[in-house]
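Issue 218. Parser rejects a valid record. Input:
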Amino acid sequence: MMVLILGIETSCDETSAAVVRDGQEILSNVVASQIEIHRRYGGVVPEIASRHHMENIGPVVEEALQRAGVHFQDLHGIAVTHGPGLVGALLVGVSYAKAAAFALQKPLMAVHHLLGHIYAAFLSHRRLPLPAVALIVSGGHTELVYMEDHGKLEILGSTRDDAAGEAFDKVARVLGLPYPGGPELELLAQGGDPEAIKFPRAWLEEGSLDFSFSGLKTAVINHLRQAAARGEHVNRADVAASFQEAVVDVLVGKSIEAARRKKARSLLLVGGVAANRRLRSRMEEEARKIGLPLFSPPLNLCTDNAAMIACAGYYKYLRKEFASWDLNAYPSLPLA
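Output the parser choked on:
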């Protein structure tokens, strides 16, 4: 039987709605971005984000249904991000999804935002081999997750301070790059030498699969301050490339080690920072060395979108994991 799931994503500054058929075919995936709105502030302002979600949610859902060529009554269920994220932003999506599901008497699926990122890989590679190790790397999260099967997850490692994407954005800011900083830093790094500056790699204690990027960020800031104090010229491209390489070394190294330990059949690279081309190429290179297939979504599915939420919701629908009508938003919701 064909299953149509409406996905809704409002965890940060993108209002998104999508219709996905059978957890695989994206019939529509509408994203209303607020980048230009928040650029003047140098980052996302939660109150402003929430207000724009309230303005956008209705039209975005209507457009998603129209593009998919379906009506509300055709849906089999509604999936929504209920955490983690900005609480005001999350509440807009959760409230809309609950109201729509209740009015239609359709099942409601509550989806963890990071689980959505994992399922973005399934949208383009449905039959990817399990068990898998997934590296979820974004502006707010850096997690290594073992996925034994659908609905069976184990956290192998997490960030102890700054997430990788957060470190990218902060270093971009001190380099004077515009918001959003991550893509701008990657662009600048293309003209630099990744071996020019020996920035530290935080491997932590022996055997740890956790991450820490706060010290690396501080090392970059200290390097820039010391150069300024000495009146030295700073090659910003070299700084960007060397910083990026330090982050990539740790992300790739720990991901490969996790896959080895768990005897994974595949490796997934997902999340907003998975769009970084240097990270993708290095991960693919190292995975190939040990004969491990790497799966990563196309660039447009790496960043926040509702298609990934609908895909994750589809597998919850199959397991009949339905949320109750008192579903709430949880800004610090743990994955497992």
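Fixed in the parser; the record now loads. The chain has two domains: 4-118+301-318, 129-292.
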